[in-house]
Write a structure and sequence with these properties.
Layout: H1 3-23, H2 38-50, H3 59-72, E1 75-78, E2 85-90, E3 93-103, H4 130-145, E4 152-160, H5 169-176, E5 184-191, E6 199-201, E7 205-206, E8 212-219, E9 223-224, H6 234-252, E10 260-268, E11 274-275, E12 278-286, H7 290-310, E13 314-321, E14 327-328, H8 330-344, E15 349-351, E16 370-376, H9 394-411
Parallel strand pairs: 3-4, 3-5, 5-16, 6-15
Antiparallel strand pairs: 1-2, 2-4, 6-16, 7-14, 8-12, 8-13, 9-11, 10-12
GO biological process, one term: diaminopimelate biosynthetic process
Keywords: Hydrolase, Manganese, Metal-binding, Signal
Pfam families: M20_dimer, Peptidase_M20
Length: about 400
């Protein structure tokens, strides 16, 4: 980085830090805040919650969102894929182009919350909070739709399908070309066990993990348990592989860098006195950098290959690469923190730890810099649990932060 770039960034940081201090005491005074459709956001969230749809099948949800966006006025609605929606708000003055994204799909999970507005669809529920993401972005869109004359630039409200199922809906929307002019992407995810309505700013650079994995079939040779010399025991081979894989992180990855290899499935045999023909294993793998991602993949493949060959077994390996890590841009991150403080107060904004989950929001970095945040929804079970729920009082602060982030990006 040259001296001029360094000075410019330092100047920007100083300006934003001054703004943080200045706005921490006078938040919630913006005139537009009275236009937040608070009760409607709750109503929209409950409707979507009660009518969940799985990835790539969000037909009714996307139609519901599209109809609402059209009703707000000043928003052009396009459908880049069959079940996604983008609302485009063009301000009265020329300027930059920014996008805020919410995901709409539900999970194949039977709801166990007991809510009056529980899912009507068996084995499908919004156990991850995407109903809240969609409702908040609708609230943001409606609030900003009344401010066309004050907006300098263009806002894309991205209601994305299929975040929960690889290869992910983000890829399809990107390939459609609908977002090619966007200069910055923002997103927000609800998380339990943070104070209600508090906004967390995830770390610079890797804000989440990658999501890879593998399925492995070890082909041995069956035999009677009393005659092991006539067989090739896939259970022994699999056990040795599981143990060896524990060294991938502890002896290959740089100490302190987040990485996880979890063997979540090991199935083989059905009788205590029979050596089976095969064993099946499956794993989940999390890393935060591309070099480590490649290192872990190579070590896993080498270990599996060498151990199976040493025992005279064969194998079939399907190594699955899914979402990369979200990369939070340092300048967008600082701006998001400044904006959140301005909107909801310094006491309600915190520096969040890296998410150890993965998100296809990461793909938008192919187009422009990204910034992903989290919203506290109170104590409760983790996302994807059948009993997952949220405190709806958090939603208004989510909308406040989203609106302020968009306005500040366009005006800075």
């Amino acid at each position: 980085m040259n001296k001029v770039s360094t000075l410019l960034i330092a100047s920007l940081f100083s300006t934003m830090l001054v703004a943080q201090n200045k706005t921490s005491s006078d938040h919630s005074t913006a005139a537009w805040m009275k236009n937040i459709p608070e009760s409607e956001v709750v109503e929209w969230r409950r409707h979507i919650h009660q009518n969940p749809e799985l990835s790539y099948k969000e037909v009714n949800t996307s139609n519901y969102v599209a109809d609402l966006l059209k009703s707000f006025g000043n928003i052009e609605v396009i459908r880049p894929t069959k079940t996604s929606v983008i609302g485009i708000l063009k301000g009265s003055k020329p300027g930059k182009t920014v996008a805020f994204r919410a995901d709409m799909d539900a999970l194949p999970v039977q709801e166990e919350t007991g809510l009056e507005f529980s899912s009507k669809n068996n084995n499908v529920s919004h156990a991850c909070g995407h109903d809240a993401h969609t409702a908040m972005l609708l609230g943001t869109a409606k609030t900003l739709s009344k401010m066309k004359n004050d907006i300098k630039g263009t806002v894309y409200f991205v209601f994305q399908h299929a975040e929960e199922e690889a290869p992910g809906g983000a890829q399809e929307i990107i390939e459609s070309g609908a977002l090619k002019d966007v200069q910055a992407f923002f997103g927000m995810h609800v998380l339990p066990n943070y104070p209600v309505g508090n906004v967390g700013i995830l770390p610079d650079a890797a804000a989440s993990t990658t999501s890879d994995g593998f399925t492995l079939t070890i082909n041995g040779k069956g035999s009677h348990g009393s005659m092991p010399q006539l067989g090739i025991d896939p259970i022994v081979v699999g056990a040795e592989i599981v143990n060896a894989l524990q060294t991938v992180i502890s002896r290959n990855v740089t100490p302190g860098e987040m990485a996880v290899v979890t063997i979540g499935k090991f199935q083989s045999g059905s009788a205590p006195n029979v050596i089976p023909d095969k064993a099946e294993l499956a794993a989940s793998i999390r890393t935060i950098s591309q070099p480590t991602r490649e290192l872990v993949e190579n070590r896993i493949k080498t270990i599996i290959d060498n151990i199976t060959k040493a025992h005279g077994a064969t194998y079939e390996l399907d190594y699955i690469k899914s979402y990369p890590a979200i990369q939070n841009d340092v300048v967008l991150n600082l701006q998001a923190k400044t904006s959140a403080i301005k909107a909801i107060g310094k006491e309600n904004v915190f520096d969040a730890s890296r998410m150890t989950a993965s998100e296809d929001f990461s793909y938008y970095n192919k187009i422009a810099p990204t910034c992903f945040m989290v919203l506290g929804i109170g104590d409760g079970v983790a996302n994807h649990n059948p009993k997952f729920n949220l405190d709806e009082k958090s939603l208004k602060n989510g909308v406040k932060a989203e609106v302020q982030v968009i306005l500040d990006y366009l005006n800075n």
